Amino acid sequence: MAADVTTIHHDNIRYFSQVLDLVMKHTEEDFGPYKLIPHDYDENGQRMRLTLIKKRNLDVFWSTSTTEREQYLRPVRFNLMRNLNHYRFLLIRKGESEHYQGIKTLPQLRQYTFGSGTHWSDTAILEDNELSLTTAIKHNNLFRMLKAQRFDFMARGAYEVWTEIEDYKEDFELHPTLMLRYPINYYFFVRPEDEHLAHRLQVGLERAAVDGSLDALFFSEPNYKRGWDEVHSGKYHIITLDSEAVTGVPASHETQTPTRLNPMPLNPSSTLNPLP
After folding, report:
1. Residue 91: which region, alpha, beta or left (left: phi > 0; alpha: psi -120 to 50)?
2. For the range 68-73, what are the long-range contacts, defined as Cβ-Cβ under 8 Å and sequence gap of 24 or more?
3. Handedness of CA 268, 270, 274, 276 (dihedral sign)
4. Rounded Cα gap, residues 247 and 83, in angstroms
5. Fewest 10 Å CB contacts: which of 130, 155, 208, 265?
6. Terminal alpha carbon distance of the chain
């Protein structure tokens, strides 16, 4: 008798969709066939999480992890962004970098104002570190507010900022010597009751990490590779923020720079076996 096909509805974002497909391929032999059905969700992260919980054509969601979020969704504890998401460049108005030279400490940083999304995990972390904030619900509104001098900085992920710099190259640039770091993991999430799917995703991620295919996929993304190279360039002074109250991850938990996984022989273990 043919094995049941695991059907997964997911958001149609290229890299994460590709990781999902890679993971499912790595587990197809022992977990069975699968079918991925992508959807283009025109919703913010908060609404996406509600969609997942209410079983409305969404089975897997990828998101930053917080202690609050893990109370009602099941995380697959494997950082999809290779720790690169722990680093934030500072987006500033073009030609104003000299105004922000000499910032080396968190108390100095508190003299300035950040713009951030109302429902972003970053916002809670910035608030916990007593940084001044101006927020907006819509992501695009923040760029208009920065241009209008409503705040000084936007903290943008080392993996995402390059497209924004290209889109707004006449208006903005990166602070040339300063970067923030706050540990915040990026996981697959499923519904609490989907233990079997969560286990399959965990197994597939571990296997793809071991054979090097996950690294190959990650570094095939030009913006991720560029962000990786910038973080390792030595050009930036890094101010580390405390994110433990929001994420449960202490600042000392991860290495100071993201590390590439080294392919190694697969050692079969109980963690790599599918659930009965």
Report:
1. beta
2. 69/189, 70/248, 72/192, 73/49, 73/189, 73/190, 73/191, 73/192
3. positive
4. 14
5. 265
6. 18
The pTM for the full model equals 0.84
What's the half-sphere exposure (Cβ side, CA atoms, 13 Å) at 75? 17
Indicate the SS3 state at residue 5.
coil
Residue with tokens 């360039």: 233
Residue 206, φ and ψ in degrees, nearest 5: -65, -40
Q: How far apart are alpha carbons 15 and 13 in whole angstroms?
A: 6
**252: nearest Cα among 88, 86, 107, 23:** 86
Token pair for 165: 């710099």
Residues 6+ apart with CB under 8 A from 14: none
- Measured CA to CA, the distance from residue 172 to residue 269 in angstroms comes to 50
pLDDT tens digit sequence for 106-142:
999 999 999 999 988 899 999 999 999 999 998 899 9
For the segment 177-186, what is each residue's pLDDT rounded down to a tens digit? 999 999 989 9
